[in-house]
Amino acid sequence: MGLLALTVLAYLPALRGGFIWDDDLHVTANETLRSLRGLYDIWFGLYRHTTCQYYPMTFTAFWIQHQLWGLNPLGYHAVNILLHGVNAVLLERLLRRLSLPLPWFAAALFAVHPVNVMSVAWITEIKNVLAGAFMLLSLLAYQRADTSLAPPFPERPLRMLSPTYAAALAWFLCALLAKTAAATLILALLLILWWRKPRLRPRDLLGVLPFAAIAGAFVSITVLVEQGYVWGTDLRLDWSPLDRWLIAARAFWLYLWHLLWPAHLAFLYPRWNVAAHTPEAWLPLVALLALLATLWRMRARFGRGPLAALLYFFLAAPALVLVQTMYMMRYTLIADHWQYFASPALFALAAAAGVRLGGRPTPPPTAPSAPRAQARSLRLSIVAPGLLILTLAAITWQQARMYRNAETLWTTTLQRNPKAWLAANNLGVIRAEAGRYEDALALYELALASDPTFPETYGNIGVALQALHRPQDAMPYFEHALRLNPDHVQSLYNLGALRLDAGRPSDAVVLLQRAAHLKRDAADIQLALAKSLKALDRMPEALDVYRRLALLRPADGAIQNDLANVLHRMGRDLDALPHYEAAIQLSPESPEPYHNKAMALLSLGRAAAAIPLFQRALAIRPDYAAARAGLAKARAGQDGIRQLTP
Is cis: bond before 152, omega within 30 of 0? Predict the structure, then answer.
């Protein structure tokens, strides 16, 4: 309970946090969280891409929370913090079972170290703390199945048919369902086996094979979903194998530095030039290989533990870039939450090193130097670790405040990394949403100065210029965004809408059709496309789009009215009448559906039925000239009138 209480105290500021970047995809705009059908889709809707990643255990956790407290961020933050505290307790138990020294100290380092704030204070990253809990439970179960992992080594081998081994596999499966990066548990198992057993036997490796098979399947699914359907394969990260090794080596030292000196941690770190293969670029890789070679040669003196810990740390965090390109690497090559699974190995190593360094024999109590030596021993064993834990907890407290809301997050990120173009861009979006378009433009220009290669910033500049009533200035920015990325949906839509407003529907249709194909569930795009098709008198195509719109916005009376207008222009007045009636029911205070239904009735020769509708339209809007003219014609018994209010 002490570790759990320590975790909660260190992360109290996070409880006041809100939703930030990517939380919309996972929670606030995630339709699967709102119904039982959504829960089914979380697990079995993979082919429909109902969630941004196939992490069904994570999204089920979100689904349960949404049923309990809706969109109140307090509950989500509390769950993340409690899960992280539970992970610290589980880590302490695992280290104790592995007979490692100072397990509580190592677990406390994990609980309060600031590098974990990103995983704990960011609602989206429940995937880390949830998968971490399942990974630790799996390791604990595996240790019970293979008791030789804790000295003294018994003769009984791993029992693969035992309930504890089955539990280890089940917990590992849950971890993969929460986040595929939990596959790094296989590396932990192999290194623990190599560290603990003087000689590895085939039956030792046999126990890891089922874990590897399950992990391979889930890694394949993740690559298929993220690169094939969600993020796409073009992330502008076409690195060579050599580039990836250089990135991984430099990331190793940066991660290690952040663990040793966790000051000025940022949400996004400066990206370095990957293609610059200068002599300095090789230093991190050479130093890493030298460190590992030194630990290998000194394993007889220090044991295999230090080498196993550093190897796992490297393979579980920096080395991920060797086998996978993650979407966030568009913005940063390292991120604190990527070392959540890796850092416990170094915390355990730090605790063991502390015992070794502080374990010098003290003089006998009768010796003159005994009091001084005993005082030094007390400081090393109690005071120094306690001060370190309190210092880290204080930094974590301060760091957690950065996640209060999106504006605080991006403002702090820019302060710590002025070249973070994503932070400048997203802060500009916040300013634009508040109506501060000039401030937004300044931030967008800052983003372009940091990186002019991303289309999002150009598209956002265009939107701000539109809001400032400068459509001609906005067009070149949308066009430039499309040169960078022909499938940039926002620019396709906005440029199409501008060309439609400029009386160029044929140009607009080409852009809007592409945007509508890329994002079929975006009602605004579909509506602009429908209007363009109608302006070109391509009524059958416009009708198809309006019917799709009616499914996307079933409670929108204006769409029902427009759909009926298209049917009327096609001469299908009988088909139009039910849609006009639906528009009236959905928008009873709008005069247009009454007028348009009346016109359709006149076309069918039913002037008497049209008169009350014209009168109702005039009662709502007395200056409605078209309705007054229609009423006069209806009273005169005229029919065949086609003039409509759009």
Answer: yes
Angle at 125 between CA 121 and CA 130, to 5 degrees: 105
Phi, psi for residue 617 in degrees, rounded to 5: -60, -40
Q: How far apart are CA 495 and CA 462, in angstroms?
A: 9
Which three-class secondary structure string do you get for 449-494? HHCCCCHHHHHHHHHHHHHCCCHHHHHHHHHHHHHHCCCCHHHHHH
State the amino acid at position 74 in one-letter form.
Answer: L
Q: What is the pTM of this model?
A: 0.85
CA-based end-to-end distance of the chain: 67
Residue count of the chain: 646
Which residues have CB under 8 Å from 109's CB, separation 6+? 347, 350, 351, 388, 389, 392
Quote the tokens at residue 627.
Answer: 């309705």
pLDDT at 645: 53
Question: Which of 63-77, 146-160, 483-497 shows the lowest per-residue confidence on average (mean pLDDT)?
Answer: 146-160
Backbone angles phi, psi at 98, to 5 degrees: -85, 5
* pLDDT recorded at residue 368: 52
Domains of the chain: total: 1
Tell me the CA distances in angstroms from 356 to 102, 107, 150, 197, 198, one per residue in order: 11, 18, 20, 22, 22
Helices (DSSP H) in 197-342: which residue ranges? 202-206, 209-225, 241-260, 279-297, 299-302, 305-316
> What is the 8-class DSSP label of residue 230?
I
Q: Please indicate, yes or no, if residue 604 is contained in any of the structural domains.
A: no
Nearest to 125 by CA among 427, 418, 400: 400
Residue 583 within a domain: no
Residue 213 near residue 169, CB atoms below 8 Å: no
Longest dimension (CA), the chain: 124
Which helix (DSSP H) or strand (DSSP E) does residue 96 occupy?
A: helix 73-97
Task: Tell me the per-residue pLDDT of 384-424, one tens digit each, with 9 for 90 and over.
Answer: 888 999 999 999 999 999 999 999 999 999 999 999 999 99
How distant, in Å, are the alpha carbons of 183, 350, 425, 459, 472 from that of 465?
A: 47, 54, 15, 10, 9
Residue 462: what residue type? G
Query: For the residues 192-215, what does the mean pLDDT come to?
Result: 88
214 burial class (0-12, 13-18, 19+ CB within 10 angstroms)? middle
Domain of 126 in residue numbering reads as 2-355
* Domain assignment of residue 570, yes or no: no
DSSP 587: -
Cα 46 → chain centroid: 17
* Structure token pair of residue 140: 């604990």
How far apart are the C-alpha atoms of 457 and 446, rounded to whole Å?
A: 10
Q: Is residue 170 in a domain?
A: yes
Contact criterion met (CB below 8 Å) for 58 and 23: no
Tell me if 52 sits within 8 A of 29, measured CB to CB.
Answer: no
pLDDT at 123 over 60: yes
Q: Rounded to the nearest 5 degrees, what angle is found at the Cα of 80, between the Cα atoms of 314 and 326? A: 40
